[in-house]
Amino acid sequence: MSAAKKTAMSVTRNIAFGAVLMIVGAMPARAASEADFKAAMSAAEAAEKQADQLRNKWLTTETQLAAAKKAAAAGDFDAAIAAAREAEALAIASIYQATSEKTRWKDMEVR
Amino acid sequence: MASTIRVRAINNGDTTEVQALIQHPMDSGFVKDAKGEIIPPHFIQQLTFEHNGKTVFLADWGPAVSKDPYVKFAFKGGAKGDELKISWVDNKGTSDSTTAKIA
Amino acid sequence: MRKALPLASILALALLAPALADDKPNPAADQKAFQTYFIKRFPKVKYEDFVNGPYSMDAGLRKQWEEKEEFPPYEFAVETGKEMFATPFKNGKTYADCFANKGIGIRQNYPYFDEKEGKVVTLELALNRCREANGEAPYNYLKDEMASLTAYMAFTSRDKKMDIKIPDDPRALEAYENGKRYFYTRRGQLNFSCASCHVQSPGEHIRSEVLAPALGIMNAMPIYRSEWSGMGTTSRRLVTCNSQTRAVPLEPQSDEYRDVEYFLSYVANGLPISGPGARP
What we know:
The structure holds three protein chains of three kinds. Chain A is elongated. The termini of chain A are far apart. Helices cover 78% and strands 0% of the residues of chain A. Chain A folds into two domains: 29 residues; 76 residues. Chain A is built from four helices and no strands. By secondary structure, chain B is mostly beta strands. Chain B has a single domain, classed as Sandwich (Immunoglobulin-like), CATH 2.60.40.10. Helices cover 0% and strands 51% of the residues of chain B. By secondary structure, chain C is mainly α. In chain C, helix 4 crosses helix 6. Chains A and C meet through helix 2, helix 3 and helix 4 of A and helix 1, helix 2 and helix 7 of C.
């Protein structure tokens, strides 16, 4: 292949590659969709509901749930999902606490 | 109206020890109520204790003093049976005063 | 994709708990052990003094408190409470009509177990029920009116000994056990139980506060807190203690709160009522 032709081919390739990149960049990032937020929020709220049934909600869980709602309302789904996941983790921890404390409280008892 | 000032003054020879508890909201003007509105400032600005016509204690107060302030101090002089006059004026112009006998 | 903890495994753990439960509740033994623990740990504290909370633990704080007791900050609330107590309801009746001995000098008998209702009744609850029975709106458990009323009633019982009864009724024993369990259970993101501070660490500091011993902690209620610039109810203290461990507080006068008040009051039987108390 002649040098000129090689150069022409690589330039074409670069343009094509660049075009692909531009198309990809123009698409919305997959993780920041409202549907994803709704799923994360739903999981967080379900866990918090269990914590509520155990009469053991944490204030920090509630703060994160509120932060998630607020971020979502402002359209920032990345932040909203992060907060919702944090809320879910906190809720799960509070459930674990309530359940394990059902027997562990005795460790503290003055006898 | 009942006095807002409770006072006890006890003479110990040379000195007289005075304690007073004053009922007053002492709102600083920086606190918000449940609706989110500022509670307007309402605090004692000047508190005076007088003995035999002479001021033995004078306080210029502001928003930093908490609700229902308690004061304790001692002054040289005073004798059992002497009168002590206590008065205050707040930022709204309200005032109160009372007299107490030194025990 | 995440899933919440499977419900089945949580239920399995919960069901396992009763199987590990102890023999029959013995409140009298608990009370003895509880009091012995504090007496042994703090040999220099006079028995009656435990009811003075942090002042029984810290000499410097005690000196400031003794000075203030000459002109206590709760005086105004007691006076207001006295007036409120004497003021008739719209129907002409008064609080005196709802209580034994006209409501004077009875605070040390609360909480009590109401066998008809099958639940613990605290003084705050009894006061609101009195109001409602006489056509008045109940007071908010966290605010000044209830604080003033209970301050006055506590004041009329000063120095009387706490005298809580647990009738020989399985429901009363269960309420007592619930209260005990609540007291020792860790909660909130900070993972503290009431015992973490008040059994393991009395006399120590948490930030700038000196921790009170759990023994007699109800005897000083309600308390005038400098932090609140005013008098606050037992309900308020329980709610704020919960928030301080980053737990979402329960509703005032929830079963758990009533039961923990029952437990803490019972184990302090014999100690004098020192309420209303003044605290930092």
